[in-house]
Each structure stands twice: as structure tokens, then as C-alpha cells.
Amino acid sequence: MPATAKRADCLIRKHMMITEIFGKVKIYKLHTRLDNRGSLEYVFDDNIVDFKARETRIYSMPKEGTFFGIHYREECSPMAKFVTVIKGRGMDYVIDLRKESPNYLQWESFELSEENALAALIPAGFGHAFISLQNDTMQLYSVDRSGDDAHSKQINYKDPKIGLKLPVPISEISDYDLRAPFVSE
């Protein structure tokens, strides 16, 4: 293979950041390769700046409406998250929890799916929530701290100061998310 073809192939494989939310949360388009065997999706590459996966989990959600979050970390113990959907569809939410931010308690949502091959890099200072939009959704979720250090806190998704809007009813939710405190508590 000529050197120019090899160089072009390397450039094509890079993820492309397509937008930023609140000046910090990055949304990437993952590189996907299709051939007669099926598809191959590259999850991490050098364009995912300032993130080294220490632990990766796959969440399998058999029911539409399976809900996770709002989860966050104290700023004294930050943790970044890299989230994508490898099967099905889900709505991902980021909530600005930086008290000094002009966007404090505002949120943005975006769909992650196997079709759109998008991923979100969510840094410390932001809450995160997710709801599956169809049965049998699978989410790949990586963090830059190990599970021993992963002591997330929760905020109640019903908190009126945040005003989260969900596109489908919740079918499954954990007890700790149901009992999560409100921002004012």
C-alpha cells in the first residue's frame, strides 16, 4: 500500500467532534467501518482528548423506558464518562451542575443510537441521565476512574429546579434513583 493511502486510512479512522454542549461536554461521531462481514465501530482513539478509560461497562436494557440517573460526582473527586449506544436507541441527558456556571441546572438532551454512532464525553461538573427509547438497548459506558473510586451521587429526576423532560414513560428505575434527593436538600 502506498504511504499516501495508508496515511489517508489513518485519518479517516479518527473520531470527529461534532459539537460541544455548555462549552465542556463533547459529542463525537464514531468511526464505523462496514464490509461484507458486518460493521466495526472504533470506540476510543487519540481524538478523545483528556480521557483514558479505566473501566468500561455494558448496560443491557430489555425494556423501553429503562432510566438511569441523574448521577454526578463531587468536584473534589471528579470522574469523566464516555457514553455511546451499541444497540438500540436512548436519550442521553447532561445537566450543568457547576454552581459558578451561567448554565447552572440547565440541561441538554441528544439521542444516542447504533444508527447515528454518536458518543458523549461528559466531564466532571455535569450530571448525567439516560433513558432507553426501545427494547433491548445496550449502552457502552466508560469512566476514567475504577469502580472502587466510583461513588456517584444522585439528584432526583423529578426536581422542578431542573425540569427534566422524558420522551417516554419510565418502565424501570433503581430504588436509589427513585429516592434521590432534590437539589435543595
Keywords:
six-stranded antiparallel sheet, 185 residues, 8% helix, 2 helices, single chain, five-stranded antiparallel sheet, mainly beta
Strand adjacency order, main sheet? 1-2-10-7-12-5
List the secondary-structure elements in sequence, H or E.
Answer: HEEEEEEEEEEEEEH
Distance between the termini: 62 Å
Please describe the biggest sheet, giving its number of strands, its sense, and whether it closes into a barrel. 6 strands, antiparallel
> How many β-strand runs?
13
* Average of the residue pLDDT scores: 86
Q: Which percent range fits the helix content? A: under 10%
Q: How much beta, percentage-wise?
A: 35-45%
Query: Which structural class matches the secondary elements?
Result: mainly beta
Provide the low-confidence segments as ranges: 1-12
Number of helices: 2
- Radius of gyration, taken over Cα atoms and rounded to an integer in Å: 17 Å
Tertiary shape? globular
